[in-house]
Amino acid sequence: xxxxxxxxxxxxxxxxxxxxxxxxxxxxxxxxxxxxxxxxxxxxxxxxxxxxxxxxxxxxxxxxxxxxxxxxxxxxxxxxxxxxxxxxxxxxxxxxxxxxxxxxxxxxxxxxxxxxxxxxxxxxxxxxxxxxxxxxxxxxxxxxxxxxxxxxxxxxxxxxxxxxxxxxxxxxxxxxxxxxxxxxxxxxxxxxxxxxxxxxxxxxxxxxxxxxxxxxxxxxxxxxxxxxxxxxxxxx
Length: 236
Fold this sequence. Notes:
Layout: H1 4-7, H2 12-21, H3 24-31, E1 62-67, E2 73-81, E3 84-93, H4 98-108, E4 114-118, H5 135-141, E5 145-149, H6 155-166, E6 175-177, H7 182-190, H8 208-220, E7 228-231
Parallel strand pairs: 1-4, 3-6, 4-5
Antiparallel strand pairs: 1-2, 2-3, 5-7
Helix pairs in contact: 6-8
């Protein structure tokens, strides 16, 4: 394991500039892997040495968590392996929409059986792609299966669900993330609560990728039995 400063991929000039521009705590977090400084982390059970692994795509069904934020629009690609979730890829598109995200998924994973677990708000929200279409209808148009609850799970429940996959009370870890998923790893490491609250600090810009992961985890490995609005439409 190497820190960003030690890895050799970031020019020394950038490191020196970052030292000037960033607060000490942020520099240590971003360049020295000093994440223990974040005592208010949302995903406190995430551990780079234990939850990050070279997960493999064995050609089985792909599960994709998706957040409909425009900038960025995010997706987390995973496979269910027994009682574990293995994240194999991530997609982040800036100034984008659902149509472009689905096109990118098709390009990366043609002829694959795919189920999308999106932000529940996509059933009503209109996108900029075509007037009258919703995010859900666009996803179905591409032949993806779609599973979503009737309403958003409570934020605290979604976080606890992900936390339990990262490490449960029996010290078992069932969520593993490929090291190439650098943005998801950064978000799990760095997202913190607003001071004095139990709400994630969205001003950090680290919540979209984790939201996408959370939507999927809540449906594939729910902590409690819930009522689902299941919409399946696979391309034959």
